[in-house]
Amino acid sequence: MSQTADQMELREEEITAHYAMALAMLQGFDHAPRIGKAVEAERQEASSGIGTRRRFRTTTPGLVTRRSTPAGAVQVIARVEGAEDTLVSPLQATVLNALRRAISIALAVAENYADVSGLGELKRANLAGNLAEARKLEFSELLAGEALVTLYVFGNAVAFLMSSHQSEVTVEVGDVQEMLTDNGQTALHGALWELDQDIAAHASDDARLVATVAAFAEALMEKVALRAQEAPRLAGFTNAVWHVEADDFTIAGFSPATKAKSTKLTMTFKKPNEVVGNHIAKYQAMKLAKMLMAYDFYRKLNPFAELGGFIFTFMGDGKPGTGKTTLIQMMAGLIHDYCAVAGYPFRYQNLSTDNIDSYQGKSGQNAKAFINTIIDPNAIGFGTIDDIDQLAGKRGDRQSSTGQLEITAVLMESFAGANTVVRGNCTFGMFSNYPENVDDALRQRAGARFLVDGPQTREDYIDILYLLMGKNHDIPVGAHEVFSAQEIKSAVAASFESHSRPHEAGLMQVFDRVQDQIGTLDTIAKLGTYLKAIQEADPRFTGRAIKNITDAVKVRAMDFELPDAWMENPELFLFKGYDAKKDMISELRQPITVEMVIQEINRYADSEFRYADKSDEVAIEEMVREFGRQEAAKKRYLEGLG
Q1: For residues 404 and 366, is the Cβ–Cβ distance under 8 A?
Q2: Per-residue DSSP letters for 397-458?
Q3: Which residues are in the ATPase AAA-type core domain (predicted)?
Q4: Is the CB of residue 407 less than 8 Å from the CB of residue 393?
Q5: 296: closest CA among 306, 281, 308?
Q6: Span 549-572, pLDDT tens digits
C-alpha cells in the first residue's frame, strides 16, 4: 500500500546500527527497581520439587553450578531460554529476535526525535558542561519526552512483531509499574526489568511466553499513551510518521500499529438470489458491501463517509426464521469475494454469548477486542452481533448480568462515543428477534434499520420452496417464473413507496393528525412539525433519531449500486486515487426529494414505535403475571391461617 504524504522511511541501517546495544541490554544489565517490586524473592515453591516459575539456566557452558545473576541484574536472554530443554526453541528465538528488533527501532526513532526536537543539541551542550541554566527545564522535559517515545515505540514494535505468533493462550500481567522517564535508555532498562519479572512469573511454557510478552507490550503502550496526554514537547513525535519497510510497520504517534491480516472465514456464503424477500434489507446490504470497497487505504478514508451515506452501524430485526443469518452470510460472502479480487485484507467477526465472562471486566475487554479487530484502518471489516438482546444488557433491568452491562457500555462508546471515528472501512450489524429488549440508547446508535421480514408475497413463498427443495425431484414449477419477484430494483422501489404512509397504528394517527392540521408535508418547517409531533407521542424520539434519519436520507441520495464491473476489475475504480473515486461517486449521486425524507422518517419512526409497543406490552404482561402471583400467594397464606 502507498505511504502517506507525511510518512518518512526509517532506514534499515538506522535500525541495525543499534543491534549491538539492543543485544547488550538483553544479555544483561544491573537495575535497582524504583517503583516496581521484585516478585522472585517472594515467590515460594508450591511444594517440594514443583517450582512456580521458569528455571533460570546459565548460557555459558561449565558455569551451571555457579551463581550467574548478581543482585539487581537483568538477563532477559537467559530468562527466555530458561526452559527445561537445553536447546532454544523456535518460539524463544522468535521472541528474542523480536525484542532486539523492537529495542533497535525504538532507539532509532528516539534519535530522530532528538534531532527534530533539539534534544540532541542540548545533550551535547550538557556533555560539554555548558548547558545554559535557562534551558535546563527544556532539557528535562525533552528527556522525559524521549523516554515516552522510546517506551511507546518499543511496546508498539513488540506487539506488532508478536501478533502473528500468538495462540489462544492469554496472560494477565497487570499494570506496568517500573515506567521511568529520566531518558530513553533508563526507560528501556525499567521496561526490560519488569518484562523479566513478568516472564519469571507467567511464562511456564512457550505459548505463555509469547502471551506474556504480547500482554506486557499492550499494557506498556496503554500506560505510556495515558502519560503522554499531558506531557509537553512531543510534537516532534506526534506530527511525524515513520515506516519500517522490512516489517511493514508504521509508527504514527501514540497509536498502535496492527498487521493487516484477513481472518479465516468458515461459513456458508449465500448469493443474493438465495435471499428471498427482505428486499430493502438485501438491497442495502448489497450496496453497503460495495461502499466498503471504496475505502482508500492511502488516505485512510472512504469517499462515502465524507460525502454522506455510509452506514457505520445498522440493526436488523425480525421474527425468528425470517432470514437474519442468511443476510449475514450473503453480506459477508460479497465483501469476502470483493476483497479477494482487490487483494484487500478482510476481517469478519461475530460477538457472541461466548464473550460474556464471569470475571469482572473481562466481558468488556472481550467486546473492546472485537471492536478493535474490526475497526483496524488497515483492513476491510464486518462485525456482527447476533441476538444482541441476549448479549448486551438493558440498563435498569435486574436480570441483566454485570458482563452484559459491560458489553452494552463498550458498544455504546464505540458506536457513537466522543472518540468514535468513522473512516468507512468497516461496518457493524446488530441483529435481534426481540429488539425491544435492547437498551434504548444502544438501539438508537444503529444508524440504519433493516427490517428482516422474510418472504411476504405468494411469489416469495413459491421461490423459497423452489430454492429449499433443491434439484433432487421432478415436480414441475408450474405457472411461475422463478426468482422474477426477487428482481431487486422493482421490489425495493415498491418497498420504499409503501413507506409514504406509516405502517404502525400509533404513528399513523400522528401522521394523519399533522397532515390535517398543516396540510401536505412539503417544506422543512412542516417536516419539522411532524418530527416534533412524533417526539410528543414517544419521548424516546430524540435528536439522535433525527441524525439517523438524515443519514438514511443521504444513503437514499446515494441510491445506486456501484457497477459490478468496478468490483470485478479493480483498475476501473478500486485502485484509483481518493479524489478520482470521490468524483466518480459524486457523479452518480441523486438529488434529495421530499418523498425520500418522508419515507425515511416513517421507516425509522415505524421501527421505534414497533419496538416501544412490544417493549411496553412485554412489561405489562410481566406486571400482570407478578400481580397474579401475589394474589395467589396472598390467598394461600390466608388459607394457611385457617
Answers
A1: no
A2: -TT--HHHHHHHHHHHHHHHSTT----SSEEEEEEES-GGGS-HHHHTT-SEEEE-----SH
A3: 318-451
A4: yes
A5: 306
A6: 888 888 777 767 788 889 889 899
